[in-house]
C-alpha cells in the first residue's frame, strides 16, 4: 500500500498535486507526462493511481480544491449576520484574493479545461454554477431590499465581476504595483458602485 506521507509529513496527494500544478503551469497539461509528475513528487505511478485515477483526475482536482475553498468562504460570508452590502463586498474581494493566491491553479484550469472528459467538465461546471448562484443570491437579496439597484440584472452583474476574476491570471503579477488585497478592494468597489441605486 502507498505511504500516506513522506519523511517530512507531507501527504502524498498534496505532493502529487503540487508537482502536477507546477508542471502543468510550466509545460502545459498536454505536454506533461504522468512519469514527470511522479518523478517530481518523488513517488511511484502506483502511488499516483492509488490517490488519483488518472492525470485528468489531477487536473480536475487542481481546480476543485480552489473552488471548494472559495465555496466554503462564500458560504461563511453569505451566512454572516451583517448587512448585505458588507457581505457581498467581503465575498467579492475574497474570490479575488483566493484566485490570486492560487493563480497557477486558475490559469491551468482555464487553459486546460477542454482536456476534461464531458462528464468531468459537467461536474466542474455544476460546482462553479453553485458558487455563482450563491454569489448572485447576495446581489438579488440586496436588490429586493432596495440596497442595490435592480436596473442591471443580477446575472449580468455576477458575470461582470467573474469576468474580471477569471482574467486575473492573464495580467496579475506578484511583483506588480498592487497587492492581492488592493486588487480585491478595487474590484469589489467597482462591483458595489455598479449596484448603487
Automatic annotation (TrEMBL):
Chain residues forming the annotated DNA-binding region: 33-52
One Pfam family cited in the UniProt record for this chain: TetR_C_24
Domain HTH tetR-type: 10-70
Keyword Repeat (UniProt): no
Annotated source species: Streptomyces niveus
Gene3D superfamilies per UniProt: Homeodomain-like, Tetracycline Repressor, domain 2
Keywords: DNA-binding, Repressor, Transcription, Transcription regulation
Entry protein name: TetR/AcrR family transcriptional regulator
